[in-house]
Fold:
Amino acid sequence: MSNFPWLTVTGAVPLVGALAIALVPGRSAAADEAGQRARDRLAKQIALVFSLITLALSLVMAVEFKPGGPRFQFAQTYQWIPQFGVHYAVGVDGIALVLIVMTTILMPVVLLASWNDAEGLAGPAGETPPRRSVKTYFILMMVLETMMIGVFGATDVFLFYVFFEAMLIPMYFMIGSYGVGKRQYAAVKFLLYSLLGGLLMLVAVIALYVYSASGNRPGTFLFLPLTHLALSATVQKWLFLGFFIAFAIKAPLWPFHTWLPDAATAAQPGAAVLLVGVLDKVGTFGMLRYCLELFPAGAHYFTPVILVLAVAGILYAAIVAIGQKDMKRLIAYTSVSHFGLIILGVFAMTSQGQVGATLYMVNHGFATGALFLIAGFLIVRRRSSQIADFGGVQKVAPVLAGLFLISGLAGLALPGLSTFVSEFLVLIGTFTRYEVAAIFATLGIILAAIYILWMYQRTMTGPVRDEVAAMPDLRARELWAVGPLIALIIVLGVYPRPVINIINPAVHQTLVHVRSTDPVPPHPASALKNGSNP
Amino acid sequence: MTGSLAATLVRPAMALTTLPAVGAQHAAWLLLAFPAFGAIVLLLGGKRTNAWGHLLGVAMALGAFVVGVLAFVQMLGYPASQRSRDLHLYSWIPVAHFQVSIGLLLDPLSICFVLLITGVGSLIHIYAIGYMSHDPERRRFFGYLNLFITAMLLLVLSDNYVGLYAGWEGVGLASYLLIGFWQYKPSAAVAAKKAFIANRVGDVGLSLAIMAMFATFGSVSFTGVFGAVGGASHGVTTAIGLLLLLGATGKSAQLPLQSWLLDAMEGPTPVSALIHAATMVTAGVYLIVRSAPIFNLAPDARLAVAIVGAVTLLFGAIIGCAKDDIKKALAGSTMSQIGYMMLAAGLGPIGYALAIAHLLAHGFFKAGLFLGAGSIKHSMNDEVDMRRFGGLATVMKITFVTFGFAYLAIIGIPPFSGFFTKDPIIDAAYSRGGVSGALLGTAALLGAGITAFYMTRIMLMTFTGKRRWEDAAHPHEVGPVMTSPMIILAIGSLGAGGFLMISNRLINFLAPVVGTPPLSHGFFTPLSFLSLALVVVGGALAWAMYGRREVPVTAPHGNPITVAARKDLYGDAFNESVLMRPGQWLARLSVFFDNRGVDGLVNTLAATLGGTSGRMRKVQTGFVRSYALSMLVGAVLLIGALLLVRL
Amino acid sequence: MSPAHYIALAVILFVIGGVGVLVRRNALVVFMCVELMLNAVNLAFIAFARMHGALDGQVIAFFVMVVAAAEVVVGLAILTSIFRTRRSASVDDANLLKY
Structure:
């Protein structure tokens, strides 16, 4: 059992699923609508089954993971391009594992929610939707899942880079071909912006290899040996910048965020969930894993600037979110704000900050994912994504409104829901070292309340508009899609300990590598005699 | 007066050590479990639970009350120094040194609140069965009420600040859901949002205080923080105290975060009675009294608390004088009475127990007042404008009597409650000494007079005089489901104050936790006679204006103070002009900046590239001869470079 | 013997041919100028071969002549095909392969 290549299999299963879907006949010359719908349904079912298998595999990994054991578990290393020291090396530590599990949980949810997205909607004036290949959409999603698992699981920098760039391709097609609105503009902007960052990172990756090949040692791309490389401070700063800008564009960090609102608005809700919920996490994961550990001196040098940008992003994006008229665009901006918090937690370099940031990555995927999906359900019903076109939905669709409220409350980090634990950890972790940054970041909770409640008030409350009066409530498929997310939001809010226990050792290791310790309180409380919490 | 100096200098003995909970108190988690169970079943069960939902809600509240009483009885059996018991439930957030658990602290202070919340809460639950009997969403209402009880109990029972914060925000959520219960009304939805956001501003203060505690002491539990606070610098303790005060002002509707309370009257009246009178708004007072060890070491923060209390006391009272909506007038009164409690809490150890005493008594009489207003509204076709009431005493006798008991309690006529709880606060304010003591005491004294004025106004306009009803109104007394809680609360209005304060019963009970010294003199002092005189003057003035003369049905214009008071003393106008409009303007500007500025940079870069490419491709002219020329020039350059290198 | 005179002649011929390619508009004249350039190069090769007493230059001259012949064949074929469709032999008129 211990030698079974869990990670590789988990990463390969979606790819096999994509192949299986590709074998389903597509749109043939004979315009056989009923047969085509049956074939499309088969393609969707295959996708769902494979994503559930992947989920099961990743859950097995999560259970088998030993928090107190070696840092990278389920590891495999094979030679790939020996001339360049490139290996196919995979392995997960606590941080990567929780992100992979989040990905595999989100995938079937997104598939269920995007069941009808590829067929397209009739336009507001009743125009027929464009004819697109339905099974290609699901093939793209399956390929994307493999890429995402690969990105988190890679322990070879070159392999990481390959997956990092490759995962842009399926997403580009999902936005550009199957999106709405200014989809081609948004897709090209997303692709070019990310590629620009990737280019800078490529330079840094190659430079890293060159530095590792100095002396008599052969150059290598493996992660752990690279962390032991002794680079001068100047070199570290430049290489840090090369990696960091790529991740800052991905994350996104203000001011590199402007591709996200356009991309999230143009994409279908399911694709937007994957974009914001997983792809962007690659950015912050990269910061935590690669920027900090490979270049600690560079990280320490740039921390003040990054903290300022992160806090600016939190407040700025929240204010801009308040002024939005489009639901999906508003949620995209709230994501930018939350990512500012995650980056703040990463660079505060305290245990609470980094555990909070990692936990936030997971919780944000579920919370913003639920919000996007429910917004998607609303948009499908009303054929419009403008907030002003809704009103009084709570009266006709109370379940929909209730779940919308819960996801919104998760967005503003209400205690009892998962996002509170992570947000509070980030803020308290930042406060112990950088009080001013934490104070400004905490002001963000007021802004979060404003944008969430205002959106809820304008769409759900008030008198029922005529166009809303016939709106159906949540159907079974939609409930199965969003229900698990809501349940996770609540359960992880009340009992986050299992996840925190997996993350704790990995963060501890990271901080040791970065040579940073938690600040000591000046007047520590004495330990209690009766053994309650200190 | 000399006792005051000693009282502020002596460090009171705090029960910093807690013992584990045993026996019946071991089941104290049921206090949270019962109402939580009710909320989950009612909210998830949906329409299926409509038939019996309200009964489940009441049962859960009563169940929690029974558990609370059992815990209280067991606590009385312990000696005074062993009454603080801790029940650890589970570890919530364990990250390195930041270890937060969910645990319950059963000590005299928290048990007082538990009894108040579950006792008055159960009565209001029963009342709501009748009040909401015509509402098809009654089941959801009880679900939200149970949710509120759960959160409020978590707030007062938690043994660390983060758990308290969880309950703190939880009651904010319940308040939001309940104020906006009738969601189809835009005014209710707006009021709910306003309440939540005003609370959030205060929550920033509480969050920062908790963070500062962790950064300074490495702990967020009560025992940890209170044990280490002695070593912290004066600046840090004052900062923590002020941040806690900010949190309290948000939750308790004190200045400057008071504007949401009057709008919160959009919610159904049982909500106003339970949340915005008896319990949630008193959470701020609980926070300050619970954090007594911190405030004891930060006299500047304490003074700030007292000043906020005193100013709000007058602010709320003046607003209450001009409101014609009976619920809004009572809301102004609540703001004012909580000002009294904050003033008492800000006076330090001499005032903590007095604040709690007034809080408990206020729970009875204010809830009674609101329930009475609710029964009037229920029987008058949802009319709340007092100018349309009048002469109801003969038609709604039980309401009149219970309302009257509560009225006598709030203005402080002996032997009703308010006399025993309000006058000691005024006395303690004066005994503080110095200019501040004199000012605070005078403010409290004046407040008593104004309280008498506006309460008498309400009584006269509502129950006496000519009947100014609308034609369709047929007021009648409400059913026993609604009158029984009112009667019980009226008994509380009569006896609670005396019961708590005579022979220092409550003060002694709370002494291990807050350290308030027993009252040095009796209740009938020259100061109390002075305040009674002011009460009589205020009442007489109200009678002169509203009892003797006829009450006009349409509100007359009134003097500038009345106009200002009708507009909530321009609190809303201030918020709008200073916060809301600039905020909206800032949001629009930011959207523009993001779309044109930041995104503009990106698009400009792309456009530059595109433009350059567009220009550069004009080199491809299509003319063979120009290509030949460039080939020639290139060859010449190349040969020249080679020659140069070789040389 | 000094190859200087021959080289000078070759350079002059080359420059005349080069200028002719750049300046003349008629495609046939351009071809002829290209031939002129090639012949100038041939002359230079022969002169150096004679100077060094080796045969390399003369062999290369043969190669150049063969290449020139092949190039003329292809070029004239393209020119006649263009002339047939466009009725113009000016190089400036064949400018459709542009931005």
Observations:
- The interface with chain B takes residues 18, 21-23, 91-92, 94-99 of chain C (CB under 8 Å).
- The mean pLDDT of chain C is 91.
- Chain C has three helices and no strands.
